Automatic annotation (TrEMBL):
The keyword Repeat is annotated on this UniProt entry: no
Keyword Signal: yes
The protein's name: Nitrate ABC transporter, periplasmic protein
UniProt xrefs under Gene3D superfamilies: Periplasmic binding protein-like II
Signal peptide coordinates: 1-20
Phylogenetic placement of the source organism: Bacteria, Bacillati, Actinomycetota, Actinomycetes, Micromonosporales
Domain SsuA/THI5-like residues, every copy: 132-271
Keywords: Signal
Domain of life according to the entry: Bacteria
Length: 471
């Protein structure tokens, strides 16, 4: 397992592109396709890291070439955030890119400034309807317990990112003025993580997979679960309009490949997580937290109405902070390329927000099916290449107690937000009034746990060890 310092050592060049990027085969006569992606932003893996590792795009281009007699070569360029991808697209140097919702809006707005730079938002990679892809973390021993405790402190985030949006909206909801009550430090995720470790900042507000990574490594604890905000967040694919007009067959091949990668992630979630972990240096346990069944991220390429609406609702914030003047969303959002390759089920799938990769199967400990996404949990046994379902978090605790050795990882959904989290990092509440197999309730943050206790007589916070023993 690589440490945070080792991950941060995967430095970037002045242009923001990873020095480890692969250069495409420059065979004579091959058409070059340049793809910008963010390897460690694992909500984009089906259009980036996993797609690249499985070679799906190259396979689809080979099929296309067999039909039209052309040769294609792909250059993959890896970035830490969406901003440099947008800059390269505006310069005509990246053809297809993937990034989060806020950077996508900035991309579209900047592209609409001139006819030559127009871009199109063409598909979703992954999403969370409640906002759980973004979170705020603090140091493990921090005295900060609530957002109100950030008054007078310095908070790290990437200005203009969804992590920044979460910070501002959550702070306002808590009665704080983001312009006066705390200082915002504009930093890249890895810089902010280092600042948090050193004590230079009191909190870090970021997107996947940084919060989960820091908590998993024992370098942070969750202060605010983005799922508390109830505002959808997502990542997606954007293409240069001029390129899509001229090379529509290549764009469709990319989207076919993205569908291939999404299907693989759904059918082989553990193998997919390990593939992404190997390519990025992220722990497989962290990747699986977000990308596994009932994961924090739901992977579905269709452009859903709830996400279109969220796009429109994000515009005022970006205007407020001065990174967006305006955008014509009707001209920017275009799922016609995806529809052309998706098939007849597009409208049905676009209307659904159910996770296509759900935890299913029989719970061997409690003897019942694990099908309810509100309670379904998962155990990754030590030394095993398979995981086991648990019908409820309480059943998961029993499985942990019965195991011959501590599991490699254990996952539970937050009782309030549904955000999937590490069971051993969760805040546990024992509710004696709850049904026997649902007596122990996990929460991502102390605030959510305390809120539950306040509303349920007899309920009390217990440690993870106490919960395992008592379950």
């Amino acid at each position: 397992m690589r440490t945070l310092a080792a991950l941060a050592a995967l430095t970037v060049t002045a242009a923001g592109c990873s020095v480890a990027d692969a250069t495409a085969d420059t065979a004579a006569g091959a058409e070059q396709v340049v793809v910008g992606y963010q390897s460690k932003t694992i909500n984009t893996v089906t259009a980036g890291t996993l797609l690249r590792a499985q070679g799906y795009f190259e396979k689809r281009l080979a099929e296309l070439g067999a039909k039209n007699g052309k040769k294609y070569a792909v250059t993959w360029q890896d970035y830490d955030t969406g901003a440099p991808i947008t800059a390269q697209m505006m310069a005509g140097k990246i053809d297809i890119g993937s990034m989060g919702d806020y950077p996508l809006l900035i991309n579209g707005a900047r592209g609409q400034q001139t006819a030559q730079t127009h871009t199109k938002f063409v598909s979703i990679t992954g999403y969370n309807t409640r906002g759980g892809l973004n979170s705020i973390v603090v140091a493990p021993d921090s005295k900060v317990r609530t957002l109100a405790d950030l008054r007078g402190a310095t908070v790290s985030t990437s200005v203009g990112s969804a992590g920044h949006g979460l910070l501002v909206q959550a702070a306002r909801k808590a009665g704080l003025d983001p312009t006066k009550d705390f200082k915002t430090e504009n930093q890249q995720p890895q810089v902010g993580a280092t600042a948090l470790r050193s004590g230079a900042v009191a909190a870090l507000s970021q997107f996947v997979a940084w919060p989960g990574l820091l908590v998993h490594q024992g370098q942070a604890r969750l202060l605010y679960d983005g799922g508390q905000l109830g505002v959808p967040t997502f990542h997606g694919v954007v293409v240069r309009e001029a390129y899509a007009t001229e090379k529509g067959d290549v764009v469709r091949a990319f989207l076919q490949a993205q569908i291939d990668a999404t299907k693989y992630l759904h059918e082989q979630p553990l193998a997919a997580a390990k593939s992404v972990a190997e390519a990025t240096g992220l722990p497989a346990e962290v990747v699986y937290l977000y990308n596994g069944p009932n994961g924090v991220s739901t992977f579905d390429t269709t452009v859903k109405q709830v996400l279109r609406d969220a796009f429109a609702q994000d515009v005022p914030f970006l205007k407020e902070i001065g990174v967006l003047q305006g955008i014509d969303l009707s001209a920017y959002v275009d799922d016609s390329y995806l529809r052309a390759v998706y098939g007849d089920g597009y409208d049905k799938d676009a209307a659904s927000t159910a996770n296509p990769a759900a935890i299913t199967g029989d719970d061997p400990v409690c003897g019942r099916a694990a099908g309810d996404p509100a309670t379904a949990s998962e155990v990754w046994p030590a030394g095993s290449d398979t995981t086991r379902p648990a019908a409820t978090p309480t059943c998961l605790l029993r499985a942990v107690r019965a195991a011959a050795q501590p599991p490699r990882a254990v996952y539970v959904p937050d009782t309030t937000t549904g955000t999937r989290w590490f069971a051993d990092k969760a805040i546990w509440v024992r509710d004696p009034a709850a049904p026997e197999q649902e007596r122990f309730k996990p929460f991502t943050t102390p605030t959510l746990a305390n809120s539950y206790v306040a509303g349920h007589a007899g309920a009390a916070v217990v440690s993870y060890a106490e919960a395992v023993k008592a379950a």
